[in-house]
UniProtKB/TrEMBL annotation:
Coiled-coil residues: 237-264
Residue stretches spanning the membrane: 72-92, 99-116, 128-157, 178-199, 205-228
Entry-linked InterPro entries: UCP010219
Region (Disordered): 1-31, 272-294
Protein origin, superkingdom: Bacteria
Keywords, alphabetical: Coiled coil, Membrane, Transmembrane, Transmembrane helix
UniProt key word Disulfide bond: no
Keyword Membrane: yes
Species of origin: Streptomyces daqingensis
Species classification: Bacteria, Bacillati, Actinomycetota, Actinomycetes, Kitasatosporales
Entry protein name: Membrane protein
Length: 294
């Protein structure tokens, strides 16, 4: 049983094994709990092992078939068909739509580039351009104080943008992680782009591209996990909004009760005044006049 499965009291009545995201800005006692939550969130954000496979296998199939028969069209269409099958399988399992379609679109652009140019290396060019743009986005947003990784993972941790002003420790961690992603991806581009424009053999270039698919990704995810696991726990703004909404509903209900009580008291007072007025108007209801002396 993991620390997430076995909550324990810390002497204040709070469960220390609970999700740290449910504790607004307070770091849990054990280090294993936030690390486990961070790991789960990263897998959710980046598609997990299946997402890694879906972005790697089509390119691997393409370069394998091209190495065997040197037929760009057959290799490209096979890779596209495989990517589509993987996407449909995700939809059948009702997984995240973005992971289902991102791989298909990426492979489709690669197929278009390869068929239009007649160069097998062009199959990987859209992915290379996307990697370069993503690397620059990570670095620029981190330098601007709004790290891209925080924008991506904030909703996953249910903290949204609370890390910007309310949780500086997490902002620092997101900034470090964004720089890590940016420079790792730039390093990958520094290898692939010179090979591509130097006219490297398509087969060799394809295998190098596939080989550089997983290791940089795993390194970036690992560094992100390290930075965030050591950072303060996320502030669960979703729970805060739900609590505020519940408190507002309770206040409304209390106000309605007080209004009902006030209306009841007002009605009782009005009825008492009306009864008193009726008694004073009845014959003999007022003060008896004194008898006249003869």
């Amino acid at each position: 049983m993991t620390p997430l499965d076995k909550p324990a009291a810390d002497g204040t009545g709070r469960r220390t094994g609970a999700d740290p995201a449910s504790d607004s800005g307070t770091q849990p006692d054990g280090a294993a709990a936030p690390r486990a939550v961070t790991e789960a969130a990263l897998f959710e954000a980046f598609g997990g092992v299946r997402g890694l496979v879906e972005t790697t296998v089509p390119g691997l199939v393409f370069i394998t078939m091209f190495t065997i028969n040197k037929d760009i069209h057959a290799a490209a269409l096979t890779a596209l068909a495989l990517s589509a099958v993987l996407g449909v399988f995700r939809l059948i399992r009702r997984d995240t739509v973005k992971h289902a379609f991102s791989g298909v679109f990426g492979v489709a652009f690669g197929v278009i580039f390869a068929m239009m140019t007649g160069d097998a290396k062009a199959f990987y060019l859209p992915g290379m351009l996307y990697t370069l743009g993503l690397a620059l986005a990570y670095i620029i947003t981190a330098a601007a104080g709004v790290p891209l990784l925080g924008l991506v993972l904030g909703p996953v941790f249910k903290e949204n943008l609370s890390w910007r002003k309310r949780n500086p420790g997490r902002k620092k961690a997101y900034t470090k992680a964004s720089y890590a992603w940016g420079f790792i991806l730039l390093g990958k581009c520094a290898i692939l782009f010179p090979m591509y424009f130097a006219g490297a053999d398509a087969t060799r270039f394809g295998w190098v591209t596939v080989a550089l698919k997983i290791p940089p990704f795993l390194l970036a995810v690992y560094l992100t996990w390290i930075f965030l696991a050591k950072a303060p726990a996320p502030i669960n703004v979703i729970a805060e909004m739900e609590a505020e909404e519940q408190a507002e509903q309770e206040r409304e209900q209390q106000k309605k009760k007080l209004d009902a009580i006030g209306e009841g008291l007002a009605d009782d007072a009005a009825r008492a005044l009306l009864a008193e007025s009726e008694r004073t108007q009845e014959p003999g209801g007022g003060q008896q006049p004194g008898r006249h002396r003869r």
